[in-house]
Design goal:
The complex is a heterodimer. Chain A is mainly alpha-helical. Chain A has five helices and no strands. In chain A, helix 1 runs antiparallel to helix 3 and helix 4 runs antiparallel to helix 5. By secondary structure, chain B is mainly α. Chain B has 24 helices and no strands. Chain B starts with a helix and ends in a 5-residue tail after the last helix. The chains are: A mainly alpha, B mainly alpha. The interface between A and B is large, with 55 and 60 residues.
């Protein structure tokens, strides 16, 4: 254990493995969302250009923005890939950098918590209303569910990040490490 | 207080989108914002068809890199500029312009060109700091040469024709490219030993290699003139897949066949087909290419989604109107207004990501600009040109960070060279600001 750091146990191996699995799922969801966007818009162009008797599948591309943004937010949290101002990282003091990291992670945890809570209400509303999108009839609850899911994943990454930082581990603070 | 809190959060290192949303959480009561709308707003904002262009163009950039299309573009520039002194720097600028005409993203341009041309510049004797500075600066062309993601954002949020914005950005983009050529021509005399690259040949040998279907390193360069025409033709022929991409994107948009967002998807399918046909990536590598694009897209979309909460709060608080009234009361001169706006935007660009700053400042300032009789298309070009300069100005200087990482340079090595390119870009900005014809040239035709 590093001097001056709380005496906390290491993140259990099963939990660390679980987080890696979660990250792999997030990556898969985001890659799939990107592929749906590409296919959806391209097929939409083909449908219009050749006047094919098919509905506008471009709707699915717009729906895919939700997982890419909200699940992607969780992925960026794990990979430390969020865009931020890079002032504190230039500090020489490791203690100050760690303190700033803890504060930032706590704020992100609060943010994700609030949005997970709000996202759940939005999802429940969408489910209860049975509202659907116009072209393909996709239930609005589908894209909205990703707000809630993405923010829950973000919370999980923040909590484990705090745990590792409390133990004095610094390897996970490198950008794009995941 | 809000501004101070926001700056404190940003300096602390809170992700930009999260910082903006947190400020609104704290002030939600005072600003009479329904907490439930806080969840719906980011969702509504990102569920917008024009915004699909961002992840799709970033994907195009990644696929081009993977499929060797960036290398092909660079080889053609190399061939065209072989007889110019210190050609690699010019190639970096020209290739960035071509890449900008495909991806519309500055960061994608810096990463793609830096990883291909940057390494070759190092081998030819350019200091790594200069290479990275030129790479970061030339990356601005990614935004200025249409298509351009910030212009798509400005057009969709202010309600201006995106195609008109693209047309308006053509001349400013070419001017900026010309200025960067000039600055490189002058600076290369100072940074290169004897003002010459250590090996100044590549087009010739590469052409010969391309014709022979070889790769590898080039030998002595004085043979450029001796390259057989068939070798050059073979190189151009091999680069046709890359050269067709800007034609497809820009031709499709301006001929009205598809919108900028659709152009991004068509370019994506095309680049994917090239990667698959060239067998440039297997399943796993292709998945990693998509992953990188997804990660970069998510980082930007988080900002766009969550700054919308702050934008809404500003609108509810009637801050845009207040600024417009202040500006109108402060001065009746459109010129003074433009000077003030440019200073404000330069400051904002130092702290905010380009897309977020465009989304925030566009609806804030465009109504005031229109009140002063400034054309919203002209104002859009001023706004985007100005904000994208923020990509070179710390603390949030994304192009500098990406170029430093791509070229293996330290910021301190880049800093002596960046101000020259910054000064050139500022000169173009002044021209754009005070000569509306530079942006609105297409209306004279």
């Amino acid at each position: 254990m590093t001097a001056g750091v709380l005496a906390v146990p290491a993140v259990p191996a099963w939990l660390a493995a679980g987080e890696r699995r979660l990250y792999a799922i997030e990556k898969w969801v985001c890659v799939a969302a990107l592929a749906v966007m590409l296919a959806g818009v391209a097929v939409g162009v083909a449908i219009r250009y050749w006047n094919l008797p098919l509905p506008n599948v471009g709707e699915w591309a717009v729906v895919a923005m939700s997982p890419l943004t909200f699940v992607g937010a969780a992925m960026c949290t794990m990979a430390h890939a969020h865009i931020s101002v890079d002032v504190v990282r230039q500090l020489r003091s490791v203690a100050l950098r760690r303190l700033a990291h803890v504060l930032v992670t706590l704020l992100m945890l609060a943010f994700a918590g609030v949005y997970a809570w709000l996202g759940w209400f939005l999802f429940a509303d969408a489910l209860a209303s049975g509202e659907r999108l116009l072209d393909m009839g996709t239930p609005v609850a589908v894209p909205v569910a990703f707000i809630w899911a993405g923010m829950l994943c973000m919370m999980a990454h923040c909590l484990l990040d705090l745990w590792r930082t409390a133990r004095g581990e610094t390897a996970h603070l490198q950008e794009g490490d995941a | 207080m809000v501004a101070l809190g926001l700056i404190a959060l940003l300096v602390l290192g809170v992700p930009v989108g999260v910082a903006f949303a947190l400020v609104v959480f704290v002030k939600a009561d005072a600003w009479n914002i329904d907490p439930y709308s806080l969840a719906a707003l980011p969702y509504d904002t990102i569920s917008n068809f024009p915004l699909l262009a961002i992840p799709l163009f970033l994907l195009v950039g990644e696929l081009m890199n993977r499929g060797g299309l960036v290398r092909q573009l660079t080889a053609v520039c190399d061939l065209l500029l072989a007889r110019v002194r210190a050609p690699m720097g010019h190639i970096m600028v020209a290739a960035s312009g071509l890449m900008g005409a495909i991806t519309g993203s500055s960061v994608a341009t810096v990463a793609a060109i830096g990883s291909t041309v940057g390494a070759e510049m190092g081998r030819r004797g350019y200091p790594v700091g200069y290479t990275a500075a030129l790479n970061a600066s030339a990356g601005l062309l990614g935004v200025l040469i249409p298509p351009s993601i910030p212009l798509i954002l400005y057009g969709s949020i202010v309600g201006v024709s995106i195609t008109q914005l693209f047309l308006a950005a053509v001349l400013p983009g070419i001017l900026t490219m010309g200025v960067f050529f000039l600055i490189h021509a002058l600076l290369s005399r100072r940074v290169l030993p004897g003002g010459q690259e250590s090996r100044a040949e590549p087009a010739a040998v590469r052409a010969r290699q391309a014709a022979a279907g070889q790769g590898g390193r080039a030998a002595d360069g004085a043979v450029a003139a001796a390259v057989p025409a068939t070798g050059r033709a073979a190189l151009v022929l091999r680069s046709v897949p890359a050269l067709l991409l800007p034609v497809l994107v820009l031709g499709g948009i301006y001929s009205g066949v598809f919108t900028p967002t659709e152009a991004a998807a068509v370019a994506g399918v095309y680049a994917l087909a090239v990667v698959l046909l060239a067998r440039a990536a297997r399943g796993g590598e292709l998945a990693r290419t998509f992953e990188r694009a997804a990660l970069a897209s998510a980082a930007i979309l988080v900002i766009i989604g969550f700054t919308s909460v702050f934008n809404r709060a500003m609108v509810l608080e009637q801050i845009p109107q207040a600024i417009a009234e202040f500006a109108a009361g402060y001065t009746t001169s459109a010129w003074v207004f433009l000077i003030v706006v440019n200073l404000v935007l330069l400051f904002v660009g130092m702290f905010m990501e380009t897309n977020a700053a465009t989304l925030l400042m566009g609806p804030l300032l465009a109504p005031a600009a229109i009140k002063f009789g400034i054309d919203p298309v002209h104002f859009g070009i001023i706004l985007v040109t100005n904000i994208e300069l923020g990509l070179l100005t710390p603390p949030l200087a994304t192009n500098l960070f990406v170029a430093a990482r791509t070229n293996g340079a330290r910021l301190t090595q880049m800093m002596p060279h960046v101000p020259w390119f910054m000064a050139g870009a500022l000169a173009v900005l002044l021209l754009i600001t005070f000569v509306p014809g530079v942006s609105l040239w297409y209306r004279l035709l």
